[in-house]
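User: Structure please.
Assistant: Input sequence and predicted structure:
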Amino acid sequence: MALLTLLDAAGSAHGFALKKRYDDLLGQERELKFGQVYSTLARLERDGLAAGVGFEQGGAAERKLYAITDAGLTEVDTWLHTPQLPGGRPTELFTKVVLALVSGRPAGEILEAQREVYLERMRQVTAGRAAGDVVDRLAGDFELLHLEADLKWVELAGQRLERLASQLDAKGER
C-alpha cells in the first residue's frame, strides 16, 4: 500500500524512484529491497491497481513507468481511511516473561534488561529528533510514545511477577 500511495503522489514513476522515496520517508531502519519493489509493482499491475504507462531512459537501460489506476485509487483511499487496532497479544517480550515464569527462570531479570534497552532507545530517539525533518520528528514522537507505553507495561508486569508465578504454580503449569 505504501508503494501504491507513493505512486499516486508521484503521478507516474519507475521502481527506482519509488524505492528512493520510500526509503527517504519511511525506510530509516527498514529500507526496501529492489526485488521487493519490482515484485510488488508487478503484482499491482497484475491486480489492476497500477498500469505501465511508458518508459523513461535511465542510464544504460529503460525504466518502466507506472501509474495508479482508478481501482488503485479506491484501494488507497479505503486503506488510508480504515482505522486499525494493534495486534492482540503483546510482542515477544510478553512471551518471554510468561515462558520464563513457567520454566522457573527469573522473569524480573528479563524485564529489567528490556527496561534498560527501552530507556537507551528513548535517549537515542530524543537526541536525534532535533536534527531531523518533520517526518523524522513525527516518527520519533511515535516511537517515544510506544516506548513509554512499553515501559509502563514492564513496570506493571514487574509488580505482578510474584502473583503470576503463584497462579502458574496453582494451575500446575510450573
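The radius of gyration is 23 Å.
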